[in-house]
Amino acid sequence: MSEISPELGKRLSDAVGKMPAFPKSVQRILELSRDINCPPKELVSVIEKDPVMTMKLLVMLNSAFYSLPKQITSVSQSIVYIGLNTIKNMALSFAVLGVLPRHNDAGYDMQRYLMHSLMTASLSRLLCQKYCMDGTDPADCNLAGLLHDFGKIVFAQSMPEEFSKVLAYSEEHKVPLHIAEKAIIGVDHSLAGAMLVEKWQFPKSLCDAIRHHHDEVLPASSIQQCLYVADRLSKHASLHNGNGIGNEAMPPAIAARFGSNLDEIIVKLGNLSSVVAEAQAFAHSSIETQT
Description:
There is one protein chain. This protein is mainly α. The protein has one domain (6-100, 107-288): Hypothetical protein af1432 (Orthogonal Bundle). Helices cover 65% and strands 0% of the residues. It has 17 helices and no strands. The protein has helices at 6-17, 24-33, 40-48, 51-61, 75-82, 84-99, 110-131, 138-147, 150-158, 160-173, 177-184, 189-199, 204-211, 222-233, 252-257, 262-269, 273-288. Helix 2 (24-33) runs antiparallel to helix 3 (40-48), helix 7 crosses helix 14 and helix 9 (150-158) crosses helix 12 (189-199). The longest helix has 22 residues, at 110-131.
């Protein structure tokens, strides 16, 4: 944190310290999923020991989005229909959603935040599956998408008055939130998010991707590149939540790997309506199962 003052650094540390712990079961899921020799039943066992997680998964699996041929009554049963990797990604998604607060005093729109995070996660995972042949786990890209904006939640929860001013500044000056955050708070949400993910003891590669997800100069990290593109794609006009930035040129490293602009990348990816539908289904299931 050498680029910010000690006072602001302490405020950020205090704010991050007030955030809830990340579920230990999810950390265990990540550990097991990285072991290629791990039996599927061991991963399923960890999930099924979390009753809230299991309930949320079953609600989602029995929703109209999946339209499975029979009602699913257990996590292990669902693997036959949609596969272990999908179940793992669903479990991670619900874990992240479970940490989100329902309300905040800053007036930040949590439903819009939720949709953007879910869409970014799905797009990041899709980009990794299609373009990354270097062994990068699509689940890591999915998790990066889910967590990349969590610094905004840190601000909304622990600095509500300032973040309320950020929201107003962004609206008045028609600038992205990370620009408004720097103007009002002195630092943007990418640093707060990276600090939180580090506190949650996630890998350095994930922390770095979140810390630099607004940087124009990108390293060779597949996670960071997929997250950068997915974050911007999820705001694209054709995905119903955007601002028509499809013709904006991509940085050289992105252009070489994915496409020269967002419109070109979307054409290469094909129909993305399922991404929007998946995000909507997750958001709806999350609201239904809130306790």
